[in-house]
Amino acid sequence: MGDENIRLFGISGSPRKASTDYIVQEALRHAGEMYSAQIEYFSAMGKKINFCIHCDYCIKNKNGCVHKDDMQFVYEKLIWADAIIIGTPVYQGLLSAQTKAIMDRCRAIAAQDMYFIRNKPGAALAVGGDRIGGQEPSIQAILNFYIINEAIPVGGGSFGANLGGALWSKDRGAEGAKDDEEGLKSMRKTVDRLMKTTILLKKKN
Ligand SMILES: Cc1cc2nc3c(=O)[nH]c(=O)nc-3n(C[C@H](O)[C@H](O)[C@H](O)COP(=O)(O)O)c2cc1C
After folding, report:
1. Is position 1 within any domain?
2. Which end of the chain has fewer beta carbons closer than 10 Å to its terminal beta carbon, N or C?
3. CATH number of the domain that residue 149 is part of
4. Is the pTM of this model over 0.90?
5. What are the Cα distances from residue 8, in Å, to 65, 73, 96, 182?
């Protein structure tokens, strides 16, 4: 299952090289190995990602964002991609500020092209320190981003994944995520569904 040449872009919205970085990279590795996907990756760690300040520069000028920062790479890769994975750590029961800022800043590409991710399948992964710490609301916030921007939100299916990849790091970074067999299963099931949906759509177009 590799002839379709799927371009997959993964984002980690964690400021650290820890569990979210590990999980998103594992998801990309799985897609590369099982589906020969071409992979691009962006980690929020060490990156300059300004908040959207609602200045409406992007709406008035249709020339990108007023901030010239590391979001440029994200814009390019979202346009390049056939499919998207966004992973976030859970902060206060929801997604990280970095993940939210990345999604907010996409208003600037939407202002240029409302259909920048239209019909592209997108999946969500969330890693919490607690077993039930807000992974589902975090995943849902990412799925809402896909819905709002006319992408196709994809979960992992029942009996193992449901809304997406939900992981429990026990606050032990990548080592904790590696030990979460059930969480890893939910991630792989979600990636499988993402890739199969993307292949189906490519065949139809
Ligand atoms: C500001 C902050 C808030 C957090 N809030 C939660 C929370 O509400 N629920 C939870 O399960 N874990 C929470 N955690 C723990 C992280 O989600 C957990 O350690 C996660 O694995 C961090 O991702 P990382 O390893 O990629 O940094 C919080 C951590 C931080 C720094």
Report:
1. no
2. C
3. 3.40.50.360
4. yes
5. 24, 14, 22, 24
Its domain, for residue 84, covers 7-204
**What spacing in Å lies between the alpha carbon of 166 and ligand 1's midpoint?**
13
Nearest residue to 108 via CA among 66, 50, 77, 141: 66
Q: Other CB atoms closer than 10 Å to residue 175's CB: what's the count?
A: 12
Q: Is residue 166 part of a domain?
A: yes
Residue 155 domain flag: yes
pLDDT in tens, 105-155: 999 999 999 999 999 999 999 999 999 999 999 999 999 999 999 999 999
Per-residue pLDDT, averaged over 34-51, amounts to 98
Alpha-carbon distance of 181 to 178, in angstroms, equals 7
- Cβ of 87 below 6 Å from ligand 1: no
CB atoms < 10 A from the CB of 188, how many? Answer: 19
Atom of ligand 1 nearest to the CA of 174: 25
Ligand 1 atom nearest 176 alpha carbon: 21
Residue 2 placed within a domain: no
Look over the chain and give the mean of its residue pLDDT values, rounded to a whole number: 97
User: Of 102, 100, 157, 117, which Cα lies nearest the Cα of 8?
Assistant: 117
How many domains does the structure of the chain reveal?
A: 1
